[in-house]
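Q: what does this look like with magnesium ion bound?
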Amino acid sequence: MEKKFVDDDELRPVPLVKVDRFGFVKPEVKSADGIVKSRSAFENDREERRIRKWRKMIGVGGSDWKHYVKRKPHVVRRRIRKGIPDCLRGLVWQLISGSRDLLLMNPGVYEQLVIYETSASELDIIRDISRTFPSHVFFQQRHGPGQRSLYNVLKAYSVYDRDVGYVQGMGFLAGLLLLYMCEEDAFWLMVALLKGAVHAPMEGLYLAGLPLVQQYLSQFEQLVREHLPKLGEHFTQEMINPSMYASQWFITVFSYSFPFPLALRIWDVFLYEGVQIVFKVGLALLKYCHDDLVKLPFEKLIHALRNFPEDAMNPDTLLPMAYSIKVSKRLEEMNQEYQKKNGKLAESHAIYQRSLRSDVKLCISLVWSIKSITLDLISYWFFLKKISFFFVSQPFILFCLYDLMETKGGKKKSSSTIFYEAPLGYSIEDVRPHGGIKKFKSAAYSNFARKPS
Amino acid sequence: MARRPDEEYDYLFKVVLIGDSGVGKSNLLSRFTRNEFCLESKSTIGVEFATRTLQVEGRTVKAQIWDTAGQERYRAITSAYYRGALGALLVYDVTKPTTFENVSRWLKELRDHADSNIVIMLIGNKTDLKHLKALATEDAQSFAEKEGLSFIETSALEATNVEKAFQTILAEIYRIISKKSLSSNEAAPTTIKEGQTLVVGAQDSSTKKPCCSSS
Ligand SMILES: Nc1nc2c(ncn2[C@@H]2O[C@H](COP(=O)(O)OP(=O)(O)OP(=O)(O)O)[C@@H](O)[C@H]2O)c(=O)[nH]1
Ligand SMILES: [Mg+2]
């Protein structure tokens, strides 16, 4: 299996664009040529050892994970804070976010959401597809696999949770996830995050009125005043408030405009420890640049808060600083204060917060009712028309056709024989050494290979 | 404190860019302030900010422009930025009728959240897409007249009329303000300390804490 992949890669032509090791198109002039090449043998060794440790901790396909976490939560936390090895990231993210369980509990639900349901947000989603990670090879090709899976995940979510629907910014969450897992896995991870499988639900960031954005921003402002009083005072004088610079930190969990390696490291911790890390990283950034920031007047200050210097965004300096800032107790207190103050608001918000379980159950019953309706030829044709409107790719339509025929025939074919539109053409168990990089390299290569040159 | 030449100005005008998502607000701003255009720009999350200093009617004016996210859901954050703005550029996409239909909703937003004397300019963007143009210039023109807005068509891509659009609205603001300061017998402010957001119109420091004060 592994051998075959390597051969494939060698046969493929060299891509036309230069990308960094995460698949982002490189800006033209850059002196140092990527981390991969400059990595020493020593570092490679260390990385290999780290991956072995992680594999042992996870077990085959994640079988030992829960056990390990229960026994040694602190070891897990420490290791995650050092960064999850890139080739295991997709799998580990699913394990720590609880999305793996959701996926297993809800077989077939995702397909149903993608194929049978219509969403009021479809046009909004399409408009933003090419505006999400526009500099990443996976998402660059018009109607390419990247853009299609991004569309599918966002559409499925907007159907799954019609109160949230689609909100700009969610595309960056989905896009980031799709670089590490297939559509269905990415979808369930979104569900786990927004509905709060493990940590506080994130949906309030996107619901009408953006209640959680408002809450987090005001809490962040408070924390700045407490942790960095001098800067807090300066902000007040210059009339700077967090909505001018930090909305996207919370709404996209740093995935909108921060350097990708930093965003990934933040996501590792975010999925395991929750939203606290967003506050901590935000405070660490301000702390790191504190002495410059306190001198700047309004306009320059805003500029600086949106363009942190490169050294500030080095994960190995910024994150240890972030970990050392303690916010959890204060945040808890502030949450309670906030709830009291905005009691009414919070109450109406609570209506949305149906428990995750009942939500999923609802979804399942919905799917079953759909399944029980026999599809006559008319709806069949309708559905095909709709699909072909959005997806020009034949394999995708083929997949849908297959699935329909199976449903009609009443047989259940094992999913492995159906061609499923996984964005990168691999399944999650298919973890290879240095997989994270190779994965999309091969995806990109296969796209280029089709182009006659 | 001595200021460098680029920080000297007679007036500081705060202007907001509003309109549906994808109509080209961020690109109009980047064209105007940095002479840049990006075909695949990310959607704006929350608000963005940029400035440019230029000559308007013989005065040095610093335009402080707030670019807002277009999606309706984001108004919870962005509408706070209308307050204290002296001008609003209301943008629609000449190839997308719905973005024009929504103009009246944006006008209502301004009426609800902005100062009543705000200067509004209607902008039909993307005129370079001639073969896709779906909205007649005349219709938009007569709509603008009816609503008392100034109107212009632009292309951020080809840099057509972008400069003119900003010049026009800033000049209009200037005229109103100089008239006002004459009639109220106050000397027009000559220089404003950098960092102060506002000049005339709204003396309340409403630019403070936009995010949490509204709701
Ligand atoms: N052809 C053409 N395309 C344009 C023009 N202006 C903007 N665009 C394109 O329209 C898309 C959206 O532009 P943005 O400036 O990001 O739109 P926006 O109004 O800021 O959108 P939001 O931030 O989501 O509210 C981008 O793909 C731009 O390249 C124009 O004058 N001509
Ligand atoms: Mg924008």
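Chain A has 27 helices and no strands. The CA atoms of residues 164 and 207 of chain A lie 5 Å apart.
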